[in-house]
Automatic annotation (TrEMBL):
InterPro entries: ADP_ATP_car_bac_type (IPR004667), MFS_trans_sf (IPR036259). Residues 583-618 are annotated as: Disordered. The keyword Acetylation does not apply. GO terms for cellular component: chloroplast membrane. Keywords: ATP-binding, Chloroplast, Membrane, Nucleotide-binding, Plastid, Transmembrane, Transmembrane helix, Transport. Residues 585-597, 605-618 have a biased composition (Low complexity). The chain crosses the membrane at residues 105-122, 142-160, 172-191, 229-250, 262-281, 302-323, 360-378, 399-418, 424-447, 454-476, 540-559. This is ADP,ATP carrier protein. GO terms for molecular function: ATP binding; ATP:ADP antiporter activity. It comes from the Eukaryota.
Length: 618
């Protein structure tokens, strides 16, 4: 028995077998056998007993007949490897997963699918409504994001904070999600059919004649106010229902081990939802082809899609109710950890003080500005090519399906890219893709006329070619963002010291995320008001895009050098710790064996790797 234990790297047996026999007396209860005896050898070292089926011990007086036990030098960690304690029955499993876990994960996966299915329909529909509406264009989007969407998002979060103080978690969930479901149902069956009566078309025309065409975007918000309200509610569905409600609920009911194992699968499932919802949008958008003349095909398509949104919303509520009533949920400590908060000025000072954080902030801001500069210009060309709401929506359905397929594929390839080429190459893929496709897109817009004969051989015009290239630009940029850019950004925090890590993330969340999202919109608003229209601003937007992407690439290279240096320092420190820490056996003698010192370091490295992989996939 002693030889077997030593061969497994476990604690040596004490020299007094009679004392060990008393410890292993099965007549004593589990609690007495585990905790009642005095520590052996070193202070603070205790014995915990576990039944290991694979170990067969011969009867030598140390263990009762028919019972096989081994001793392991750990402090009350008997169940860490998933093996049941003595007298504890193993929990039922299916495909190696505990049934209790499956009862949580499957409903969560279905909830996530339904939420993202709805989000894709709403995201495609909101663009169709505000871009193709009479008296509006893609120029409305920058003004809408800055002056309507942002204030309503801030107001909603203030209201949510107040409600969270007075309502239970269940009541808060239903209070938030039910108004969304009611609004989208009412819009499809009530607000849109009445839009001709509730929109101030005549007054908007008079104001446009007075102010001039450069104010087309701001006046369009007033002209089609119900469509703009739909736009904002669709945006809030993405930020509130996905980020706040779903992930808040998921983090509440899952353990850390379950999250590491299953959260990456949610990311893959999200792209499956994107594919199916894109096909759904395509189907309903094509209903117009089977309708007679004089029928508002878009109104019928909208009713069908909003009906699905309502049904999916009700399914989300049912799944939430089922999990809360039929699944045993883990208990959480009521102690709240204080999170360091940084104001805007504190965040700006911290950003300026650290080169590493400045480079990381440049990546975040550059992505937000770049994707907005291209996306709004592309949507203006998309309206010119597909002026009908049904045609526009049908194309957006194909676009969503393509985005889902590309992102799903890139997520599967991302692990190979990180392993093969490292952080630096992975961090430069997203800006490189955006630069190449952006240059092609703006070139077709600005210099497309000489290419007309060549494109005609392929049955395309310069406008249609620009629409396709812009679609590819958006698809590949977003898939690279989800699969590579986001994981790279999160990985960059890992080698930092705890203070810089916490403060740096807080600074970027406070300053850089909003600046990146609104920066592109503010630039476009300035260009539109200065040059009169988005079309006149296109050459300047293309030049600004190139400058921003080159700054992005320079920051990525700089950050890669700093990231690599920090990782090497971290690995060197771990090697020094392994070599310096002596190991003390149970008999009291010191040993240079590195098993015990390696284990904490290895577990720490494994934890960081698992967390990064989970963030990469999500």
């Amino acid at each position: 028995m002693e030889a077997v234990l030593k061969s497994r790297g476990l604690l040596s047996l004490p020299p007094n077998p009679t004392r060990a026999t008393s410890l292993l007396n099965p007549s004593q209860g589990l609690k007495q056998r585990l905790f009642a005896s005095k520590p052996l050898g070193l202070n603070g070292l205790s014995l915990s007993f576990k039944r290991i089926p694979s170990v067969v011990a011969k009867s030598n007086g140390l263990s009762p007949k028919g019972k096989n036990f081994i001793c392991k030098a750990e402090a009350a960690a008997a169940a860490d490897d998933g093996q049941p304690l003595i007298g504890e029955s193993e929990k039922p499993k299916f495909l190696g997963i505990e049934l209790v876990t499956l009862k949580k994960i499957i409903p969560l996966g279905l909830m996530f699918f339904c939420i993202l299915f709805n989000y894709t329909i709403l995201r495609d529909t909101k663009d169709v409504l505000v871009v193709t509406a009479k008296g509006s264009s893609a120029e409305i989007i920058p003004f809408l994001k800055t002056w309507v969407n942002l204030p309503m998002a801030v107001g909603f979060m203030l209201l949510y904070t107040k409600l969270a103080d007075v309502l239970s978690k269940k009541a808060l969930f239903y209070t938030v999600i039910v108004p969304f479901i009611i609004f989208f149902g009412a819009f499809g069956f009530l607000l849109y059919p009445l839009s001709n009566y509730i929109h101030p078309e005549a007054l908007a025309d008079k104001l446009l004649a007075v102010l001039g065409p450069r104010f087309l975007g701001p006046l369009a918000i007033f002209r089609i106010w119900s469509f703009c309200l739909f736009y904002v509610m669709a945006e809030l569905w993405g930020s509130v229902v996905i980020s706040v409600l779903f992930w808040g609920f998921a983090n509440q009911i899952t353990t850390v081990d379950e999250a590491k194992r299953f959260y990456p699968l949610f990311g893959l499932g999200a792209n499956v939802a994107l594919i199916f919802s894109g096909r759904t949008v395509k189907y309903f958008s094509n209903l117009r082809q089977n309708l007679g003349p004089g029928v508002d095909g878009w109104a019928i398509s909208l009713k069908g899609m909003m009906s699905i949104v309502v049904l999916m919303g009700l399914a989300i509520c049912f799944l939430y109710w089922w999990v809360n009533n039929f699944v045993p949920l883990p208990t959480r400590s009521k102690k709240k950890k204080e999170k360091p908060k940084m104001g805007t000025m504190e965040s700006l000072k911290f950003l300026v003080s650290s080169r590493y954080i400045r480079d990381l902030a440049t990546l975040v801001v550059a992505y937000g500005i770049s994707i907005n500069l291209v996306e709004v210009t592309w949507k203006s060309k998309l309206k010119a090519q597909f002026p009908s709401p049904n045609e526009y929506s049908s194309f957006m359905g194909d676009f969503s399906t393509g985005t889902g397929i590309a992102t799903f594929t890139m997520m599967l390839l991302s692990q190979f890219i990180f392993d093969k080429y490292g952080w630096g190459i992975a961090a430069t893929i997203t800006p490189t893709v955006l630069l190449l496709t952006g240059v092609g897109f703006f070139s077709l817009i600005l210099f497309g006329d000489p290419l007309t004969p060549a494109l005609a051989k392929f049955g395309m015009t310069p406008l249609l070619a620009a629409v396709y290239v812009g679609a590819l630009q958006n698809i590949f940029s977003k898939s690279a963002k989800y699969s590579l850019f986001d994981p790279c950004k999160e990985m960059a925090y890992i080698p930092l010291d705890e203070d810089t890590k916490v403060k740096g993330k807080a600074a970027i969340d406070v300053v850089c995320n909003p600046l990146g999202k609104s920066g592109g919109a503010l630039i476009q608003q300035f260009m539109i008001l200065t040059f009169g229209s988005l079309a006149n601003s296109t050459p300047y937007l293309g030049g600004i895009l190139m400058v921003i992407v080159f700054l992005w690439l320079a920051a990525a290279r700089s950050l890669d050098a700093q990231f690599t240096a920090l990782r090497r320092e971290e690995e060197l420190e771990k090697e020094m710790e392994r070599a310096a820490i002596p190991i003390v056996s149970a008999s009291g003698s010191a040993s240079d064996t590195s098993d015990s010192s390696v284990k904490p370091a290895a577990e720490d490295s494994l934890g960081s790797s698992s967390e990064t992989s989970s963030q990469s996939n999500i």
